[in-house]
Amino acid sequence: MGAAFLGVSFFPIRKLVSKLPAGNIRQKWNFLSILILFFLFGYLGYSISYWEKYEIHFDLLVPVIFFFGSIFVLMVGILSLQTAMDLNLIHVLKRENITDTLIGIYNRRHFDFKLIEEFERAHRYDLPLSLLMLDIDHFKKINDIYGHQTGDMVLKSLGQLILKNVRETDIVARYGGEEIAIITPHTSVKAATDLAERLCRKLESSPMIPDDKYNNRQSISITVSIGVAGLDGEMLDEQSLIKGTDEALYEAKRKGRNQVVVFRQND
After folding, report:
1. Domain tally for the chain?
2. Long-range contacts (CB closer than 8 Å, 24 or more residues apart) made by 95-104
3. In Å, what is the CA distance from 188 to each residue of 87, 127, 167, 193, 230?
């Protein structure tokens, strides 16, 4: 009976191990699996060897201990598997809660949270902080000419290209519509402006949707306008930084689009 419990307990643990990422934790669970197998075969060997030799009730003590030990291992395996599945579900839900599902970058909710966090950290430790606001030029024309489905494809391509050209520490988020915000912690205005210029030129030269001769569709390229603002002593909260970046973006559009404008407090 104990062997049956041990056998059943081994499978949820192996299933759990298969879901774990490669590394130290998987090695430890593999070692635990080996111990369980050792426990299983040890119990089977003991039971077979001494099954007909039990003379007094005391001799049944070891099989009883093994039996309850197998129940314990079974519960550990089941609970561990359930815990791992629940944690994985929580991770997925948390990721979905902060991600814009269309573009594959962070959403506005996460942007607001991270900007407050980075703003407070920059103020507390006197660190540089910059914000970029990017808007696709004449995006409405793409939707009108090619349809909203194609417009969605352009947004996806844009998001992925931006992610490939920023640091892992930068926070890229959909601010609204076709506007994308990039929080650049520990970054001066000059460095953020250099990044904006690189993005502007990279996007101009990279088709968002390639040629599709089968469907008789030409490649679709875009240009963007980018506003940049950096934290300074006159900005009392994160909304001041957003306001400055937004004003710079508006100025980039007013000047003809496809360019970068940096917010100046005294302009």
Report:
1. 2
2. 100/159, 100/173, 100/174, 102/152, 102/155, 102/156, 102/174, 103/155, 103/156, 103/158, 103/159, 103/174, 103/180, 104/156, 104/159, 104/160, 104/163
3. 38, 9, 14, 9, 7
81 and 134 in a single domain? The answer is no
| Least confident segment among 2-6, 90-94, 171-175 | 2-6
Backbone angles phi, psi at 181, to 5 degrees: -105, 145
Residue 181: closest CA among 253, 121, 241: 241
Give yes or no: residues 81 and 128 share one domain. Answer: no
Instruction: Answer yes or no: do 88 and 113 share one domain.
Output: no
CA distance 227 to 262: 6
Note whether 225 and 165 are within 8 A (CB). Answer: no
127-184 pLDDT, tens per residue? 999 999 999 999 999 999 889 999 999 999 999 999 999 999 999 999 999 999 999 9
- Residue 49 belongs to domain spanning: 2-98
Q: What is the longest distance spanned by two Cα atoms in the chain? A: 99
Q: Is 204 a catalytic residue?
A: no
Among residues 178, 197, 204, 234, the one annotated as catalytic is: 178
> What is the pTM (predicted TM-score) of this model?
0.71
**Same-domain pairing of 119 and 94:** no
